Amino acid sequence: MFGFFLSEEKKMRQHAANWLEVADRVWHYRRDLLTATQSQSLQSAVGDLKQRLKEKADASRLKLAAEALERVLRAVGGRVYPTTSLAENVEFLLVAAIVILGIRAYFVQPFKIPTNSMWPSYYGMTHELFRPGDEPGVLRKVARFATLGATHYSLAAPADGEVLVPVLPMFRNLRVAYADKPGRSMVVFPSVNREYTFSVGGQLTTLTVPADFDFERVLEEAFKGREPSLAAALNASAEKNQPLETSTINIRSGGRQVAERVYWVPLGKTVKRGEPILSFDILTGDLLFVDRFSYNFVPPKVGSGFVFKTGNIPDLKNDEGDKYFIKRLVGVPGDTLEIRQPAAGARDGGAPDRSGGGQLFRNGKPIEGSEAFAANARKEGLYPGYTNEGLLGVGKVMSVPAHSYVALGDNSPRSKDSRFWGYVPEKDVVGRPLFIYYPLTKRWGPAR
Known about the structure:
Layout lengths: L7 H23 L5 H19 L4 H18 L8 H22 L1 E5 L13 E4 L8 H11 L1 E7 L4 E10 L2 E4 L1 E8 L3 E12 L2 E8 L4 H9 L6 H11 L4 E9 L2 E16 L4 E8 L3 E5 L13 E5 L4 H7 L3 E8 L4 E5 L18 E4 L2 E2 L4 H8 L19 E2 L4 E5 L9 H4 L2 E2 L3 E10 L6 E2 L2
């Protein structure tokens, strides 16, 4: 690297040493194929160059001996020497790949946070909605892509008119219909996308986003108005605009395509042809390194971020396959866990308050081991508190069996975790989050 600081003689001595290394390689790879004359020529040229190095000959004499050795190597080296640039590059890439795979398998593995089940400790894909006239220009898009991994999405109106979306009735709420479609991540890797359909002036247009992205949060921010949620806004609009138009659309989910009858609900927005219905960026989820080494020697601790495989969890095996999940470890073998709601106050006789998130208890005491536990208990900042669902429903207690763990998301209302699918087998533990290396935000640095 700093060879330009060396004298001419030192440079030539290094050069000569490199030629001797090549000659040694040729000899070991091809000595059984060389004729007696070729073997003698090679040994003679090598001996001459070694002798001049031993004598500390000047640069000009070393150069002559090195050139003589090179001529012999070209004559006897076969496929070993001279090596083509293609062969050198292939060899380099193979060695690099072996080293990278070894590091990934045993020490440090890169991991992308796909969803917001651990938000706000770790971010999955989030969005930034742009109002008309605020869309980023080319330079700003490039800067946001480089620093935040932001990808811009925009949907233009195909005609003049009011914007409508197809919805499916789900119990007492309405849910925006979508279709799952196969796609590609980073152009190469298979992935799943979701296609959403909009109608304007009787003409349909579609928008495709990654399946892991919570697109309904974009719709909620853009169209809920004064209602508390998107579902409430859709219900209010449906009641106001009776009777609704209906049609049948094909919806693909879980590998099956079915025809579903949908209701077209107005979103309360009227546009001109070519105007944006929606304009937003999807910001990449946190990219971090996972420590795969430590848990070979020390057991996981309650409160740690917790990466594991899902292939042996029965309720996830069919839906998710063998994927990597990240949650927070809350229970180890022998623990008991429950979620208690805070008391509403003396005037209610200390009855549980069901209006918000509760506090997680481990072995009868408030859980400790992470700042996220305390933040959720206080509903501090963006932490919403824990919700009673599934195996940790109201009044239910989970007892952790041997060789198993319990993992919950920090964003309890939006997390599918051990409350729904049970325990993580000990053998499927991968490691703990180590360092968030992208995007370049205030979260960059050691993982919490």
